[in-house]
Structures are given as C-alpha cells and as structure tokens.
Amino acid sequence: xxxxxxxxxxxxxxxxxxxxxxxxxxxxxxxxxxxxxxxxxxxxxxxxxxxxxxxxxxxxxxxxxxxxxxxxxxxxxxxxxxxxxxxxxxxxxxxxxxxxxxxxxxxxxxxxxxxxxxxxxxxxxxxxxxxxxxxxxxxxxxxxxxxxxxxxxxxxxxxx
Length: 160
Ligand code: C5P
Ligand code: MG
Hints:
Blueprint: E1 4-17, E2 21-23, E3 26-28, E4 32-34, H1 42-54, H2 60-63, H3 77-89, E5 92-102, H4 112-123, E6 130-135, H5 141-144, E7 148-159
Parallel strand pairs: 5-6
Antiparallel strand pairs: 1-4, 1-7, 2-3, 5-7
Helix pairs in contact: 1-3
C-alpha cells in the first residue's frame, strides 16, 4: 500500500509597530512586524501545523502553549524542527511542502529564495520541494487593510 499523508496549516497574526517582521525564519526589513507570544512567524507556524496535521498530532498550541513563558519570544525554528523530528520518528519523510503568505505589504518576492532555502534547511529536504508564494489581499479585509498577515501551508509526507 502506498502510504501518503497530507497536512494543512493556517496562521494569522496582528501587525504591530516596532516588532520584527520574520517570515519563514527570514527577517524582512520593515517598519512594522507581527505581534505574538513567540516571534510570530506566520509561515513557520502554518507549516508546523501542516506537518502535525499530516500526522494527526493536534496543533502547534498543543505542543507549544502560548501561556508557557519558555516560548515567549521563541524562534519558530524550534516549532518546525520539533514537528520535523516527529515526522521522522513516525517513519515518514517530507516529500514536499507548499505555502502562501498573504500580506498587503511589504513586497516579499526578493526574499523568496532565502525563505525557500531556510525552510528546506529546517526540513532537511531540497529547496525544489518547498513552494513559497506571496499574495496581497487586494486591500480588502483585515489583511488588505494592513491589520494582519496570514499564511497557509500544505505538506505531503511519504512513508520512508
Ligand atoms: O496579490 P497579487 O496577486 O497582486 O500579488 C502579485 C505578486 O506580487 C505576487 O505574485 C507576488 O509575487 C508579489 N507579492 C510580493 N509581496 C507581497 C504580495 C505579493 O512580493 N506582500
Ligand atoms: Mg502563530
């Protein structure tokens, strides 16, 4: 039997002045960032949930409660690395991931390769197995009005 699993993740954080803007582990120069208990990296949070979802292991908040002071300001690398370790422990390999970041501004496309390569490094897979897409929200809704940013991710795991 071919054993393939798919996981889906989504995340959303408020925009806040004076916070760093960290997307996929890459710090983007910007006068605002995303608010949150950890570093508020929407992309790594969505991706972590996609891996956990593929394994039916709940969600990121279950593994890293945002009430726990040890995760305050935490780099989200740790969340994704934890999920990637669970994938390996359960006998799976990440075949590929695909992601979308929805942020009205700043323009992110110049950082696409850096984000793709950083995610590939964290997952231990080739960069051509990591899709990274950016969208505005066409100035509509909370994302479009610059109040928040969102990310979506899917992951496909195969039994190794
Ligand atoms: O949202 P829209 O389709 O108008 O985005 C057009 C292109 O702009 C996207 O395909 C993406 O490459 C780029 N983009 C970006 N940074 C954003 C939003 C979109 O680089 N924050
Ligand atoms: Mg989050």
